[in-house]
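All the exercises in this workshop are built on plain-text protein records. An example says more than a description, so a record of this kind follows:
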Amino acid sequence: MTLDDPTYQKHRYWMKRAQELATDAGNEGEVPVGCVIIDGQNNLIAEGQNRREQDKDPTAHAEILALRRAGQTLNTWHLNDCTLYVTLEPCPMCAGAIILARLGLLVYAVDDLKTGSIRSVANLPDSSASNHRLPVIAGILETPCRHELQSWFSRRRPKN
């Protein structure tokens, strides 16, 4: 994909929206992760941002919240024609939910070297436990999304 490729531009557009949601989450004291889901006609059908602290819910990850909203919007849990954009590689819980939703495409910005379960630490989509082969694109807007995550964590961790 080249920088002027329309598909690449579409991925950047939606990832920018996910990044805006991540910024909002960070400003609210949550780990800055944002997510959007679009349908096959490039319409926004769901958004989510981390809300674990606000909701007092360990499952309130951006992806889970967006998947729930997408299912409600489409009135089905089958998201075959949808694309999910998220600023950080999904964890095992979110990767499992994405696979179970039969998502059409996953696009994420930053590899998560601690809990990433798409490519970095584990590869759930390609494992024998997966009942769905998930197409994945990584690295869209990686630098700004990584910077936001690193900045957020550096402000919260004590300096040695």
